[in-house]
Structure to design on (291 residues):
């Protein structure tokens, strides 16, 4: 097996949540395409949630099991029609939507969710289940928002420092599996937090040069590991890092970010930049745990 083939299999299986809504169906088909590109199986998960516990009895005429199974069967059939060679497993869980997805996802898996939903995934609005799993998953989480049509043929990854090397490598593996190019975007904010008392800038050009060099040092190992992958770097001065990433998102099939999870925050939320991009990006967004 050559190097590219070995790298191809470093991306693990794909897990996707569904409630039967249009948004969830779009996420399921996106996840199926991703699993196909990786040559990995797809698991489709439906979580009934604790509020349906009273229905979980063998003699009920219509149970959460029936409803959930119907949703999963339809999802599996939809995937089978579009991707007949893909191995698809279905998982019906008693847990709440977010927990059911986390339980079904291992550290090597990639979890895919839609940006909103209904029914068994009634809280699958970005800000609830999507943010819940993005903040807690041990592996990458992809929130499928708008999908570029036709495909842009590019994966974009946000890089700020060496802590983003995991996200960078995930983006490179994904781009290679898709036959896409990789665009590295590093947005820096000069005098961030310095306040209005700063009156003199010694050398903005020198700071820009240092930012470029730092980005190159982070990207160089990935260039060496993926010699056949087309990689471009954009180091830009920005008024808003999140704004810059949202601005480039329409040109991407996937935007990849490292998850910044503040250690002292209640409920393990994401950092503000990641949070903003998940709400406003115009393409699917992958959140990769840092470290």
């Amino acid at each position: 097996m050559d190097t590219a083939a070995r790298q191809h299999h470093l991306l693990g299986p794909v897990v996707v949540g569904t409630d039967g809504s249009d948004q969830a169906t779009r996420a399921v088909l996106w996840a199926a395409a991703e699993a196909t590109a990786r040559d990995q199986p797809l698991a489709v998960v439906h979580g009934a949630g604790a509020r349906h516990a009273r229905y979980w009895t063998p003699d009920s005429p219509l149970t959460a099991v029936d409803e959930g199974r119907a949703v999963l069967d339809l999802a599996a059939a939809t995937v089978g029609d579009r991707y007949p060679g893909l191995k698809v497993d279905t998982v019906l869980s008693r847990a709440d939507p977010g927990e059911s997805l986390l339980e079904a996802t291992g550290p090597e898996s990639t979890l895919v969710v839609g940006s909103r939903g209904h029914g068994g995934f009634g809280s699958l609005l970005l800000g609830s289940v999507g943010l819940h799993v993005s903040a807690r998953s041990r592996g990458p989480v992809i929130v499928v928002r708008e999908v570029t049509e036709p495909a842009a043929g590019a994966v974009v990854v946000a890089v700020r420092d060496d802590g983003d090397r995991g996200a960078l490598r995930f983006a490179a593996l994904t781009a290679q599996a898709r036959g896409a190019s990789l665009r590295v975007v590093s947005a820096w904010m000069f005098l961030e937090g310095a306040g209005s008392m700063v009156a003199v800038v010694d050398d903005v050009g020198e700071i820009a040069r240092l930012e470029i060099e730092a980005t190159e040092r982070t990207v160089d190992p990935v260039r060496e590991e993926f010699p056949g992958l087309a990689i471009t770097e954009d180091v830009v001065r920005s008024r808003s890092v999140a704004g810059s990433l949202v601005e480039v998102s329409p040109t991407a099939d996937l935007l990849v970010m490292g998850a910044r999870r503040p250690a002292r925050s209640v409920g393990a939320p994401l950092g503000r930049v990641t949070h903003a991009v998940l709400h406003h990006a115009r393409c699917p967004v992958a959140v990769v745990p840092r470290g």
About this structure: The CA atoms of residues 154 and 181 lie 5 Å apart. Residues 204-225 form the longest helix (22 residues). The chain has two domains: 3-144, 154-289.
